[in-house]
User: Fold this.
Amino acid sequence: MTKKLSLYRIIRNRIRLWIDLFVLWITAKAFGWMLAIFLSFPYRSRMSHNNGIAGQGQMKIVGNPEFPEHPFYAAGKVFPVRVRHASATFLDDAMNCIRSISIKLSHNRFKSPFDIEMNSGQTSLFWSAASFLKFGSMRKEKWGVEYVEYNRLYPEGLKGAQQAVRRHATSFHNVHYYSKTPFLFVGKDGIKRYAKYRVKPFDDEPESGIDNNPSDWDMSNQRVLPHETRGRNFLKYEYEDRVKREGAKYRLQIQTRIAQDDDDPEVFNNMILWDEQIFPWQDLGVIEITEVLDWKESTRMGFSVNNMPKTLGVLPAKSIFDYNSLNYLRAHSEIARKARMWSYWFWGVPPEIPDNDNRNVSDWGK
Amino acid sequence: MSTEKNPQEICKECHEKTRIGYQYNDGFFGPKLRSINHLEVGRSKIISSPITITLEFLYLVYEKVRDFFVRIWHSLFPRRPKIWGEHKNTRIVGTLRYAHRNELDVPIHHLKIEFWARTWWLQWRKLSEAYSDYEGNFVLPFDLRTARSWKIKKVQAEVYQFTHTYYDGGLLKLHEERFKVLPIRKKDLIGMSYNLRTVRLFLWEYRTDTMVPRVVIKDHDKDAPQKYSQGRKDALIAQILPIELTKIKHLEQIKLAPETISLQDIQNDYPESLTVCIEKKLPGYTRSDEWFGLRMMNGMNRGYFEPDPTEPGMYWIKYFGVCNYPHNNEYALPTAEIKFRIKENGLPTPVEIHLTGPLNAIDKNPWQKHLFTPESGDKWLYAKRIARVNGGFSTEVDEHFCGTHLNTEQYAIAAYRNLRLNPLSELLLPHLKEVVLINHSADKMLLQEYIPSATALTYEGLQLRNKDVMGVLDWNGWKPMRVLSEAHTLARAENLFWNVVTEYVDWFFAEKEDGIKKYWKEIYRMSEDLVNNAVPVFLSDVNLDSLSPEEKHLAQNRLTYYCGQYGFEKNKNRQVRNGELKAVSPLTLSEEYNETDWNGLKQACSYMIMMATFMHTWINEHQYDDMGEVLYNCGGLRFSEKPEGVLQPESELSIAPDLTRSTQMLFFTNFLSRTEYGFITRNEEHDINPEFKKRLEVHRKAFSDLGVNIDNIESRTNI
Ligand SMILES: [Fe+2]
Assistant:
């Protein structure tokens, strides 16, 4: 129903927006600094994806793009690429973890024209800055069990976890990864679009590690199974062997849609998929990893949503409840990455994860 | 003996004179009774000393002041229907289930859930409302920003219980009461869904400790699925007080100076009953064959006349005694089978009385038989009294308590558990309300305390008997009593009322057809509750071949008679659940509307209304007529220690109830028949469909000609 335009309404809405933006800004800044002071520097830690392995090679944009033309993704263009796979949040590959891929279109540790971070699962466990902070505050991890209360209170969060975790994935390479929250896409035609990204194995190897019948009340239990024989690093070893043997080849895909001023805010909701019939996935490029980096190098790497061309960057957020606030939070937590780098300089790079029987842990010391 | 008037005129006069009125004037320093729940057999919590009355007065003043401020408070912070927020982008979700250990998986459908916010300045803002679905799931969409606004101090979800419908200026209104509050931390609302998870409610649960379907009532005042309306409580208090005081006086006198009180004194202290009145004007008439037959036919007992299989024109009324139920050996309760001939005037006259069972305390053979005829001299008089007393007992326990009270409760529980959005709630609930409350009181006052102390059956025996009688109660195939003659006014009134009810139900079904079909699943669930919790068909769980020949004959005799008495058709296709052949037929076996069940459903609804209204009222309001004189009729005659036992005259007080039980009996029959409230035509609570009232009014004269004042027919079984 259309409401009557009035000066009062304009002023009221404007003041509300300013307050919301201020709350968002202060929240994001405070979050970044808290992370830096209480986690990244003292514990030499990333926020979650510490347990990982990186490799490098090159990415070639497809020769006949079907997505809207964009100068950055010019047909046939070749980029140097680094990827880093990780398991969140535990230092044990055999636990029931979310798996990830982070892509950097350069061979640097950080500097790059384009970074993108993706996790397994089509949807997420949280959907806005507010929900992410709630998620974080309700972690309460103990011996591999976490988010008990969160999973009880938020059904979509629980569902997101159920379809995002990949216990016993046979390889980082055959998991499908999704960027989830959309990004900006302004192509050659100047039309504003939104874009989502995903990565699949190039040869369409079936995805592994999916539990088709997850438990509603045992989801928080991410511990290794009672008679587990796989070690803490089995996935990283597999990846190392695979790259040495045959390399790792991926397909980066993109989904775009034209922005409309009456778009439902749910368009930006990472918990809601865009209909693939209407917004089909298009091949963007092929990534070929030919070399695995050592633990130290992969640990020293950092990724940021700020490493993107202006025309492909983060969408603006209006409040902490805005679905786009999730990327806003990421964009404003750069200080945490810097603090981690300082901690390496100060304490040294954390040691590799030992193949011992300290299972179900997420701290370096164990 | 007065010879100027004929018995009919005298009876009419006495009927007028002893008619129940509302004369008690509740003065300021008059004693007060807090509520029906505080009534007891021995001594009700009457507040009678001036000090306590003053304190009570002060309390009432406090209550009034408090209510005044509560009203002001509510008007300052009203709960308006407006729903706040523009973008319903977030949801409260959850599932409603029963809390009882046996029903943890059973969803509660169509309960209303509301989501409320309260501002820092205490104003209420409704954020959302919804009903649970058939799986018990609910989704309350709301605007996240409105809920998280800085103005909001707290938020909460509230579950509402549907209590009743009423008519306000011709419009049907639903009344829902807040049943449970579920607080939510405002800061936990972060978008998408917030899960209240499974909300378990103690709502209209079935008891598991009874043989018949009963509802759980933990505390009559505080934790019951229903409450009496204020009007019902007020009416009770106003009418009960004088008889309550009379009873108390008697009990004190019996305790302190028993030599100063006699049975006659007790009788005189209570309002004059019909038989006492007639006996004063026409001594001996109420003990005559004529009166005996008249009352069996058209009195409280509404006796069922079973045609004699061999002699046309002869009929039997059978009152089964202790049978094989646990019983004591102090009170007589032989089986009484009375053979009647219908006279030319259409009224029955007794010709034989067969008594089976002990008549004294010495010979305990349960199968001993005694035959009495008008030629038996004084013994004929004694035998009629024994038969009358058994008739009183059977009518109260079988017809009144089982046939109407317990019978209605089983429908009430199933209806209240399931009927919400279906229009049948509007049709049925006004007639099914409060019955569980009065039954709960009856459990304690009558079943546990009074009856086992004043009659032959123990509490356990009563429970078993209730279960057996419930085993012949079913809506399916029920018909009102067959009219034997012009003079069979009860049956004529019953048939007339049944016609009114069925026509009204037909009209209602035609009016609300769409809604009834749309929410058919509520009916299915009601039916499932009804059937699953019903008692087994009488004798269906007994191996007759394992019984002795006498027991087997008794069992079959009872089954045959009961089928006629309660309109029970043995051969209906009934459900077997949990290995039991269930007495109550299903309303439907289909979750979706099913054409073949339509007429049956109408019949079932008519039956429920019929039982809760006319059938109950008939017995209830005639209790004081037929059990208002201790020596004429009572719950049980004592054997005494003499070899003649109960075959002794009324003057032999050792076979009559003792003084305590006498005053208790008169108290109860007065109490039960004088404190009625909630009538169809008076419609005190505006919950009776005006159409029902209108259709009844059309027949006012016809009913009146049959001795029935339609203004006295209760809309529900609540006393
Ligand atoms: Fe009653």
Chain B touches chain A at residues 87, 89, 93, 144-145, 148, 187-188, 190-195, 197 (CB under 8 Å).
